Amino acid sequence: MDGQAVYFDGQTNRKHSVVLRIADRLEIVEQDAVVAVWPFADVRLADGPPTALLRLACTSALPLARLEVADEATKQAIVSHCPLLAAGRGGSQIMRIVFWSLAAACSIFGLAAYGVPAVADRLVPFVPQAWENRVGEMVDRQIRFFIRGNACSAPEGQAALATLVGKLKSAGGIDNAHEPLVLSSKIPNAFALPGGKIYVLDGLLEKAQSPDELAGVLAHELGHVKHRDGMRKLIHDGGTSFLIGLLFGDVTGAGAVLFAGRSLLDASYSRDAERDADAFASQAMGKLGRSAAPLGELLLRIPGAQAKGISTILDSHPLTEDRLEALKKDQSPVTGEVLLSNGEWRALKRICRP
Amino acid sequence: MNDQVAVPSIALPNRVSFFDRRSDFRRLVFRGALLEFVTVGFYRFWLATDIRRHLWSHTSVEGDAPEYTGTAKELFLGFLFAVAILSPIYLVYFLIGLEAERWKAFASTPLAIFYYVFFQFAIYRARRYRVTRTVWRGVRFWMGGSGLSYAWRVALWSLFAAITLGIALPWRQAALERYKMKHTFYGDLAGHFAATGGALFKRGWLLWLATAIMVASLFVVISMQIDALTATWPFVQLLLLPFIYGAYKAIEWRWWVSGIRFGDVSFESDVRRGAMIGLYWKVIGWMILMIIVLMLWISAVAGIAYVLSDFNGPTAQKLISLSQQPPVLIGLGVGYLAIVLLTWMVIRIYLIHDVWQRVAESVSVHNVAAAYNVTTQGSLVGALGEGLAGSLDMGF
User: Closest Cα of chain A to B149: distance in Å?
Assistant: First the structure.
């Protein structure tokens, strides 16, 4: 049969009005001369206006040679003659895409959940202390930018703090920690930086009611220093953001899934670190004949929203129920002598307001 | 048998038309958003290709629809190459940033400039990819030029525009368009850009003035602490913003279209300001609605968890403890995800489809006969640029 079509030869953009001869091949005839022959098996659909016309290409012709067929009878004749019309248009590949995407996601999640923490654990012992100190200095500058407070230096208070920390350090066998620094900030918090610097904010000193409570906090932070948690967290967070940021770059649905997943991973990871630091605090306090239970009491007294300068729904310093329970359970008998005398404790409490 | 040559009857001579069923596109992006979710985002390459195919093939220039010949596989490969190239760059970037921060807090901020310039490079390469995948009447468009030299132009012009408080912006636009169009071809028909920065300035200076006055008045209100205005004034400005932006976009589109030349073929657009402003308001309306729904959802999840929890302790501690529970996190995550997917649907429908439609329909082509006998030329370029732009498109 014959049909009408518009033909583009793939070399110029001239529109050729042609006749299609559909016999054993597709013959393209212009003014009674055959200008091109397309074998049926080579004819493919090209992308075009879906309702108006059928746009065709041919694998054995020039890559941009096109036929455009508008009338229904010719369209149908072509559809029935060309067996591979829709080949390579990928109708059924959705399931394949879904499968491989999920496989990739599983592998990346697995890497983030197990690989990255394992790498962080293995890598930390090999990070030279000097490097960690450099990173610590960097974090330090940012912290001091956000927490605007002066370092408190009342001499009696400093002496008392040094006594307390000295006892804890020898009980815990720690040699890589700096002397803690008290900042005159009203935020009730304390934290350890990579490199071993420890900050105690005056807001926390105000809330603390006994030397043991403060000692618990310090011991907890010393635990982080001993385990080099700051450095470990840096490697861990860097690794997961790297994986996630790079592979799922944009903020489409992917970013959202990974935001949720990442937060869960980070939260569970830091929960472990917190538990370990608590265990270290219990041990150190136990060696001094004191209990870590007051640490739990102090943490309970600090309103959660204030515990960090900025409160987020996914607090990286989580006070979970099991953590509180574990601390409460530490009811080892108090046998040792008090860590600070009354005078020393008063001086320490007033380190920022001599 | 019908003897008519295939020319769709919808096309007016010399006028570009766009004709589709909106519900088709809605279904396309809805399905795409769901699949994007299921495939943790990997479907985006296929969706982007489908969207382009839809837009290209429903547009008609002198009765003939362009054809988009790009494939999702190319985009995916481009993405993989981009990952391979970016990995070491990220690491170096991170280490330099670390050292800079150690020296001084936030000393690494200028590194963002490098990132911005690199992003421009990627954008140029991405444009090259899309242009070489566009075919009209069996002849492809193509593009040369260097992404690097484009990126430097953007950097210097942006600096200049910043120094002049935005007055130089029209000339920046004109210079960049000139560079892009100078290297764009349709077959052997060379493109260039004929519109000037001065022309854009003449049409847009009132809007620039309005923006300058708004920013200045905000400073005045805040620094003088006029109590009655500090709360309401920013809000009023927020309401004005879509009008100004929409009007500017309409002006910019008209100016841009009027500057495009391929040989002796020229173009003209009469897109209305109202059409653009209306689109932005629709997007804002949907966004507000979705934020309200998200807030309701969050309070519902938190409320249910609060009632069901047996945590004993102060309320604040209880809330923090609740926010750590996996079921709560999952509940919040699902709500967040649904909103993100809907947001992308809204953006794709209004800011991609509708903007395309309104601009396309507003264009008329002059002297199209000058493009009647064009010979094919130029070669394809890979999709690496798209991959880079996609991976970098986080901060800008």
Answer: 25
